[in-house]
Amino acid sequence: MESSGTLSAHQVDEAEPSQSSIDLYRTLSADIASGVAVVSTVWRRRDYAATVTGHMSVSYDPPTMLVSLYDGGRIADAVSESGIWALSLLGSAHQGNANWLASPGTPLEGLLNQVPFRRGPATGSVIIDGALAYFELRTVAIHEAATHLLVVGEVVSMGRDASGREVQDPLIHYSSSYRRLSS
Hints:
- By secondary structure, the protein is of the alpha+beta class.
- It has a single domain, classed as Roll (Pnp Oxidase, Chain A).
- 15% of the residues lie in helices and 41% in strands.
- The strands form three sheets. A seven-stranded antiparallel beta sheet has the order 3-2-6-9-10-5-4.
- Strand 9 and strand 10 form a beta hairpin.
- It is globular and about 50 Å long.
């Protein structure tokens, strides 16, 4: 790091990145603002849900989305195996739910006891009450990418639970913490 407070250019040429390259990537990529969402599914008659920030719209025709899930996590296994899932976009009022569902080691039994939700009409997956928008999806492709799975889904149902000012107040993840878009 230079004394001016800026990071110097850093080449990543190694087949295996060094710890300093990984640390630098974490620092720089933390400045990518992202909406916060909950991905959920039902697998083996059990609900699975987790907070995610790696999601995006892929196509409008047909409506298609992608979510990035840590390959070692139970949500990745459940979404991969079930073939159906939901994505609930969160507003700032959902920060407590986002923290809970992002916590490592949350219990599988009772995971959603403190989270208000309803079932999606197409998949039966959890939709967080008051979601800015929700999408229910059917998996069409799964790609391995480093430590993550990129799960691509075709939208089978969608809608909005929030209204008025709630829609204008999404929960954003930026610089390693939650932020509000509006004040």
